[in-house]
Amino acid sequence: MARPDRYSQDFGSPRLSDEGRKGLALMAKDARIQRALDFLQQSSSWRTEEIAAAVHLSSSRFRHVFKQQMGLSLRRYLCLVRLERARKLAGESFLSVKEIAARVGANDISHFLRQYKAVYGQTPSETRAQFTKAIICDQSSENCIERK
Fold this sequence. Notes:
It is a single chain. By secondary structure, the protein is mainly α. The protein has a single domain, classed as Homeodomain-like (Arc Repressor Mutant, subunit A, Orthogonal Bundle), CATH 1.10.10.60. The chain has helices at 6-10, 18-22, 31-42, 48-54, 59-70, 74-92, 97-103, 109-120, 124-136. The chain is elongated. 22% of the residues are buried.
């Protein structure tokens, strides 16, 4: 009997669609949540207490309003933002996977890799290879260099 995938349960669907990725930058209806999203873009601290204090709410009230407005928990949102930042780093830099994980705040590399693969369906190294091929491929089939 197949064991259920824990990461699929944590993230809803196992892979984040293009619409889902764009949804990370949603505009919240509640001005406090929009201020929190802006705070997250500018701040390196992602502690719930600090985010809640920045928008003048208690931690528990902030988590409740965030989930109500965004449709997902703060923890899940922060995880998806970290993974999206990791994806960007994988495509735009030549940092090692370990360095990418450290830059986005992942303490356990194997956990980070499982989460990344559950959301994107590929490893950061495969993402890098895909971006590198896209850059080499000059957008036209006659100028495309096939790399293996």
